[in-house]
Amino acid sequence: MKVYISADMEGITGLVDAEDVQPPGRDYERGRGLMTEDVNAAVRGAYAAGASYVLVNDAHGPMRNLLPDLLDPRALLIKGRPKPMGMIEGLTVDFDAVVCVGFHARAGTLGVLSHSFMGHEIEDIWLDDKLTGEIGLLHAAASTYGVPVAALTGDNTACTEATAWDSQIHTYPVKQAKDRFAAQLVPVAESRSGIEQTVQRALTTLPTRPDPARPASARPAAAPALAAEADSPALSKTVHQLTVRWQSASVASHLLAIPGLEKTDDRTITTQGDMLHLYRLFNLYLRVATAVTSNPPYC
């Protein structure tokens, strides 16, 4: 069994504030250790469930948060940015399950450090007219590969958001949101045990995925280029609509230089395409928005 772990930071055990998750925050270095240990708990759960291969993608902010020397040596790590596929870089049809560690709720909801990709600049995202955030977009992209999101950890608001997308996702809340920068915390040792047990249970109860096109190699090859993926019969070509409303009209104005985008008002852009194209395109949006603006994520 091949398991893919996407690791964010806002939903990590014990973290509640920008100082915990953003360099050079006064508690950021401690937050990196807590993040690494939450991921290690998920890795242990994966191997306890029978995994033969675990790939971890550092998916938060600078994407250089996880501490390689403290990471479970059985896991491989993708670190750094930019990555064309961002939070799902390295995911392919070869994997049996996705595990999301440390995730947070979408912008506008009362969750710990809630936002959608950019703390200030993105007001709302709609996928096929349904409000979404990082959880929904990741779930939709993983589904295109035919890989289920088996488990997710984060605060209670993120867990509720995940099961609203897919009731089969096993969740473990590591904290109960009291406000955007406050939470009641699950004790650290209890939280790590809960993550491990939740991931093990989720992977042990995975439905069978009959797919003769999937290779049987012990380790999946590197992720193919999207041009090659486009020709794969294993990937869904369903057309979706992605709409993003920005805080800044400047961002929307700059993005209109990308072919295929339309502006529905001064701050809202929309486009259509298959899900993997949209996910990669959205990561391009983020790079443009970062270049255009200088606002810190949680202002």
From TrEMBL:
Residues 214-225 have a biased composition (Low complexity). Residues 206-225 are annotated as: Disordered. The keyword Hydrolase applies. Keywords: Aminopeptidase, Hydrolase, Metal-binding, Protease, Zinc. Zn(2+) 1 binds at residues 8, 10. Its EC number is 3.4.11.-. Signal peptide: none annotated. It is an enzyme of class 3 (hydrolase). The keyword Glycoprotein does not apply. The active site is at residue 115. CDD domains: DAP_dppA_1. One of its GO terms (molecular function) is aminopeptidase activity. Zn(2+) 2 binds at residues 8, 60, 104, 134. This is D-amino peptidase.
